[in-house]
Amino acid sequence: MISIATVRSVVASTRADAVVFVVTALVTVSVDLIYAVLIGIAVAAFFALRTLARSAGVHREQLPGYAVTGDERIALFRLDGALFFGAAERVLERVSAIRDVEVVILRMSQLQVLDATGAQVITELIATLERRGITVLVKGIQTRHMKLAERVGVIASLRHQNHLFNEIQQALDHARSHVRRAAEGRQ
Q1: First to last CA, the chain
Q2: CA quadruple 117, 164, 82, 93: dihedral positive or negative?
Q3: pLDDT (tens digit, 9 = 90+) per residue, 101-144?
Q4: 134: left (phi over 0), alpha (psi -120 to 50) or beta
Q5: Who has the most CB within 10 Å: 3, 87, 100, 117?
Q6: Is the distance from CB of 24 to CB of 39 less than 8 angstroms?
Q7: Could you say which residues of the chain have pLDDT below 70?
Q8: Inter-CA distances, 106 with 53, 65, 138, Å
Q9: Rounded to 5 degrees, what angle do the CA atoms 94, 99, 105 make?
């Protein structure tokens, strides 16, 4: 009922596709077509979620433009891909481990998928950093994620409502003002 060329093509494509195909075929032959389709969908969903979780990332970036005295006290992190239950803890661990900074800018404009668990992790991250005396600025929450971010508490966890930015330069200028004030306070 299926051509040998199709079998070869699917089995040779990716490991995930091959596993889904083989499992579905085995269950079809040994049990029933209905169960095979259900199990095939479940296995395919597992691999899709795993791939989505791997696409999530948190990357420390260089600050844009010319360096200014105090920039070493500012950390810029870009969150990309999908931040959901399958990947959220990695982001929390990576950013929470930051040391020797006074301001963290979370750049969220490249975040494609955000669920309640991911938003909760961002809320916990902000609260953890703020408790350590690190000011957190958030740049670029997409419009489609804003309602969720408000409901889960991402926005409320910021020290001040002015810590939410649309442009990186505005966030960077604000971060530098925090660093300057902190340096003046130490003198």
Answers
A1: 80
A2: negative
A3: 999 999 988 887 788 888 888 888 888 899 989 999 999 898 99
A4: beta
A5: 87
A6: yes
A7: 1, 48-57, 82-92, 187
A8: 19, 17, 5
A9: 65
